[in-house]
Each structure stands twice: as C-alpha cells, then as structure tokens.
Amino acid sequence: MIFANLEKLPPDPILGVTAAFRADPSPDKIDLGVGVYRDDHGNTPVPAGVREAERALLAEQRTKTYVGPAGNAEFNERIVELALGPVAREVRDRTATIQTVGGCGALRLGAELIRASRPDAVVHVSDPTWANHEPLLGSSGLALQRYPYYDPATRGVAFDRMRDHLATLPSGSVVLLHACCHNPTGVDLDPDQWRALTDVFAERGLVPFVDLAYQGFSDDLESDVYGLRLLATRVPQLLLAVSCSKNFGLYRERTGALAVVAGNAAAAAAIATHEARTARRMYSMPPDHGAAIAARVLANPELRALWESELQGMVARMKSLRALLADRLATRRPDLDFSWVTRQRGMFSLIGLDSAAIGELRGRHHVYVPPDGRMNVAGVSESNVDRVADSIVAVLG
Ligand SMILES: Cc1ncc(COP(=O)(O)O)c(C=O)c1O
Q: Tell me, what's the pLDDT at 12?
C-alpha cells in the first residue's frame, strides 16, 4: 500500500472551525471564525463592478486556450500599479511579476524563489502571524523565525521591540510584513512607525516580503499601502504577494500575483524566468478567469469607480460593526477598556481569551472562533451583536 504511512491529520485550525460550525445544529450559532467578508445578511457578495466585468468577459471570450505560466500580462501590470501607484513606474524595468494561484500561491512561489537562490536564507515572520504563513513558507524548505510584533498588554504593536529585533538581523534576512489589516491581530503600523522601520530595512540591508491581502480594507486603497510604497522607494529589492480574494471578492477564483522588485533590470529578467519555471514545475499555469475579471475592472473607469465605492462600503461597514461591538461590550462591562475593538483595522482582532474560554464560547454559546482567538468582525451583525457581546462577557469571568 503506497499510502500506508499517511495517518489522518488533525483538522486545519481555521478550516476546522468552519466544519465544526456547519455541524452545530443550534439555530443561534454565530461564525466569527471564517476569513471572509460578510454583509448584513451574512452573505459574501460578488461586488457589482466585478459581476459586470465578468458578464462582459463571458460575452466576449471566444477561446479558453492556455495563457502561459506568467498568466494575464495586463492583470500583472495593473495589479502592481494598484499596489505601488506612482512607484510602479519608477521600478517597472526591474520588476518581475507573475500571476499566481491567489495570495497563497504568491507567498509559496516567493518562498520557492528565495530558496532556489539562497537555500540558507531565513524568513522572519511576525509573532503572531496568519496561521497559514508558516506552513506555506516553511514547506519550501526555508527556515523561519519570529520577530516581536503584538503586545497583548496594550493590544497594539510592540514597535520598539520589533524595530530593535529587526535591527539585529544579518543583512539579506527576509522579513515578511503585512501591508495592512494584520492577520490575526488587526494591529497595523502607523506612518511614523513605517518610516522608522524603512530606515532599519535600508540601513541593515533587509529584504521585505510584503503580504498584501487586504488593500482597501483598512481605510482606502491609497493609505493602506503607505508603508509598502515607502519601502519600494527606499530598498533595492522587495517581494510583494498580492491577493484579490477579499477586495475583489474573487476568493474561489484564486487570483493573485507575485511581484519581485530586483536590484536592476537584468536581475529582474532572470527572476522572471525562474518565476515561470517554478510555476511550470508546480502547477504549470494559473487560472485565468479571476485575473481577466480584475484586469477589466481596473482598466474600465466606470467599473473601477463602482468597485471602489463598494469597497468603501465594506470598510465603512466593518468600522461601524467595530464601533457597535465596542459599545455593546462597554455597556456590559464599563470597568473594562474595549477601545481596542475600534482602534484595530480590517476584519480581524484577537479576542484575548484563553483556550478554555474559547472552548466555552463554542460549547455553551455556539460562538465560533479559531483556537488562536482570532475574531472576524465581519461575522458580527446588528441582529447578533448583543448575543456576541453577552457571550464574550460571560466567558471573560
Ligand atoms: C494575511 C493573508 N495573506 C494571504 C492570504 C491569501 O489569500 P488567498 O490565497 O485566498 O488569495 C490571506 C487569506 O486569508 C491572508 O489572510
């Protein structure tokens, strides 16, 4: 039996919560675990601008022949422009971009490239980080280490410790940064901190690997990439993993890109050949549909304006849910400070409960969060916020 050595694995920490939620027959169950945006009705909509683009694409498309390992060239160009803005033009000749299988594909492909060039490189990830970062990057064979990031006492960034730690790393160390909406903490760097951090990267010769999975989900498409653009102007090389899952609502279309900004044009040309070969050896080519849709949205001013206004609506909703939840928690426990709920950004916050309390939330209150306590604020709604607040307060002790 060729597979006799494969034993059953424990459930994935995040996907396992979804499975447990589905299996719970309680009509009152609430899912704060899953990492997708939800509207007032609990649905994850396809933005109208994206649907329009898809309709037009289907009406016009006459072939589904192969595109090639680098995927949709127009998408690659436009998605880098969306992320880097005016800086994209400055670094254009030394940027090698490949369309990937979602943001996960970009992270993994980036790790494979680093390993092919420098097998002994260490990738430093924030403590904590998204539960899938370490498996995705580590499976390439690269060594991983953690740097200080979150301070549970202040529920903010442990910035001094982060900066001092990064300032001790050897030149050439790769550091994975979340561009915005840090997953799982919701805690981001402010512009002053980005400037100070960029100095450290430039002075120490560190290589940023920026994960951009939530552009437009914190405040807006421009301010969310302040730090990324600053880094791209100040450091000679950078890796950027983009996901279109959340902001375009293209989750299952698996749409993303890896852009590598290299020291010079010749290096970028060489990197492009390695990107294509790595993709060819793993999965050959990325799926086209989502990338063709996103390219169309970005290229068409009307569709783009429609999409941007819908994105603004999603952000406004997440901010108002945060305000609502903070208010309901504070009403129940005026002795505690819940201002962190509104200070944090994007969909996630760490709820700050131990595993017994998280088990009790699930077992007694039918409120589902993953074992690390990452709460998806988009799972809260006007109709369930009181139950969410009651349940959290009940397990706080
Ligand atoms: C921090 C972070 N990076 C990357 C991704 C990748 O997303 P996808 O592969 O679905 O595009 C996600 C998705 O949840 C994420 O939260």
A: 79
Tell the residue nearest (CA) to atom 7 of ligand 1: 103
Strands 207-212 and 238-243: parallel
Encoded tokens for 25 = 């027959």
- pLDDT of residue 10 exceeding 90, the answer is no
Q: Rounded CA gap, 216 and 224, in Å?
A: 6
Residue 15 has pLDDT above 90, yes or no: no
Mutate to test the pocket of ligand 1, among 183, 187, 217, 228 (most ligand atoms within 8 A of CB): 183
The DSSP element (H or E) to which 144 belongs, if any, is: strand 143-148
Q: What sign has the CA pseudo-torsion 154, 160, 164, 166?
A: positive
Counts of helices then strands in the chain (DSSP H, E):
15, 13
DSSP character string of 217-246? SSS-TTGGGHHHHHHHHHSS-EEEEEE-TT
**Count of beta carbons in the 10 Å neighbourhood of residue 166:** 19
Tell me, yes or no, if the pTM score tops 0.85: yes
Mean pLDDT over 76-88 rounds to 98
